[in-house]
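Board work, copied verbatim: IS110 family transposase
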Amino acid sequence: MDFTQNNRLEQITDETLIIGIDVAKHKHVARAIDDRGRDLAKRLVFENGLTGFKELLDWTQNLSEQTNRPNLIFGMEPTGHYWLNLAYYLKALELHAVVVNPTKVKRTKELDDDSPTKNDTKDAKVIAQVVRAGRYHEPILLEGIYAELREGMKLHDMMQKNLSSVKAQVQNALDRYFPEFTTVFKDWTKKTPIHFLKKGYLPEDIVSCSEEALMVEVKQAAKRGVGIKRVQELKHAAETSVGLTVGLTMAREELSYLIDQYLAIEERIRAHEARLEELVLQVPGASEMIAIKGIGVLTVAGFFAEVGDLSNYKDPRQIIKLAGFNLQLNQSGIFKG
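↓ predict structure ↓
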């Protein structure tokens, strides 16, 4: 993996053909320049698919032969996810694909024509010029176990967001129909409150039930932890509730549906976390990291999901910079901060 700009500049020689690609959802635009920044051909517009990728390779190969420049560098912005398919395709063919910072592209685009005009053709050339200046980076294109971990952590985040959404919807329903419920059960995600909510118990249902009947429901959910005193508190809360008394049939359906969703997502998360643990323990050094006090399995899984194989790095500072924790010097005259 690259570390210094000098190393990157050494790869740009008089035998290098630089291809700048402006990536989009359906069509990409490619421009070709040499090591001095001169245009070598008209732009190429190609589809974001196998046919388009092959068209790009044919176009590039012809230019390479015509200009006697066998060394190819394909540069693109890592914006969104549309660049990934092309990057992995080029990597599979052992072609050199690099990425440039979108901020650098934005700041560079006025150098040629003193105009902030933005279009795909211009952006493709600007990307190529940024690559020519050595201001590019080798992309982290994960494979094998590391790719599995990245997709796994992405799915885990998705599940957690869905779980938070369902919890918020349950709280919304409680605020409307039984706002006093959480004064009796501080955490409605425990077994007993989950049982009552799943069965659609609203204030009028609890009021109509005897304490003995409610205790039977409690024992079905939890063998201990909730006694007659808590049941009496629940009855009192139901009797004095200011919750809505309209639309109760559908309100019960809503609560039952949301609790089913909550339980299903929770179960999937537990199973998924167990699978992530199996995966991360296959990574060299992961078990030693997990053994550190305060470091959990998901933390280590998330680390390798972002960083990938540690053997791709030459210096620890690369990982620090990747995480955004590198210190910045702010100096002017005698001021230093």
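The longest helix spans residues 144-177.
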